[in-house]
Amino acid sequence: MNSEHLHEALERATDAVAPVGMAADALATARRRRVQRRGALAGLVAAAAVSAVVAATQGVAAMPWGDRSAAPMSPGPTPASPTSASDSLTFAPPIEAGRIQPVWDPRDVEGLRNRDLGMSPTLPGARTGTVTTAVALLDDGQEQTMVVGRDGVAQALNLPAGLGRQRTVQLSPDGSRVAAVGITGFFWRELDGGDWRRVEVPDTVTGEGIELTWLPGSGSLVLRSHLPGVRIDLETDGQRELPELNGYVAWAADPAGLLTYTPRRGELVSQEPDGESRSVIITPLESLQRLIVSATSLAAARANSSIASPPAVDDRDGLIALDRDTLATRGYLPVRDSSSSYVDGGALSARAWLDDDTVLFSVHPLQADEAHLVTWDVESGELRRVTSWSGTYSASFATELLREP
Hints:
Layout: H1 3-13, H2 42-47, H3 85-88, E1 89-91, E2 134-139, E3 145-149, E4 154-156, E5 168-171, E6 177-182, E7 185-190, E8 197-199, E9 211-214, E10 220-224, E11 229-233, E12 239-242, E13 251-253, E14 259-261, E15 267-271, E16 277-281, E17 287-293, E18 297-303, E19 318-323, E20 329-334, E21 348-355, E22 358-363, E23 370-377, E24 383-390, E25 394-397
Parallel strand pairs: 1-16
Antiparallel strand pairs: 2-3, 2-25, 3-4, 5-6, 6-7, 7-8, 9-10, 10-11, 11-12, 13-14, 14-15, 15-16, 17-18, 18-19, 19-20, 21-22, 22-23, 23-24
């Protein structure tokens, strides 16, 4: 084993799954109902030495904190019943060689053709003013937080006091709301007026470094650390614990609010409309991080976890798009540089499905000052740059508003 391979092995020893953002569009919902339960695989599972996992549920939990006089949150999908490996567990197919696209060097991002999705090609815009509906939010984690409108106008946003430098601030998918969580708690506000509203949430989802993820429709969101997540309905302040999001799992919600998540490495669980859950062994795909889910497809940052000499054609980090029903590869975009350079650190992240063939993703090239928002056609492999911003900022986007004029 040469020094480069040894370095990669040491990097993977500290590999962690990072969760991520969600899909934006609901497309061809009827297709989701074609999912068929796979059967008679218990023997195959045993031969592969893989244990079946009881599907996690999205049950309603009583919360032992704060005043719960507000209307309770709706219970959501019916919890799944425990199922055996013989009727729930399948294997994802390996990446098809014909779906592997040419290796891309993110340092070439500035040479891509531009794509106009209704936002300034550089963030923040040069002008300042009042923003009531934003397409982007930038936060430097120290003093500056700003929202940017479709016309490029930028407005400074004053945050609640005391959140800390490791706070999390996120723009809603429809661009109308902002939410923030930190040391002093969880807050949200409308951009078109009004003050920050504080919502009492468990101590397990307050503090620094908390993940905050908006759900489709911008009426609810999820807070989580490495403990079970908590879903919050902003209209009622109703809350529900999400035990399936316990630990360092990658996850996303589809347009109907159903979750897809990785309870452990090598497994992907998808909640189904009938209340059941489907569990799939994804070892051939290796590590999927920062998932996004549409009605028909799934995309993720894919971390290579194999060390081979010579390396196989798919022994690279990159972006991968999968058919949601079969997990067959729709497209795999490998990136240059050693494994973990982009995916494990979050420098390459799928953000949203813009349509059935187009993934919106962000990338911060190695040793570069700027990060970029890029579109990827998963079928043709075409890449186009949307906008750029200083890499000192974390950025979130109103993905439901990003469309070609």
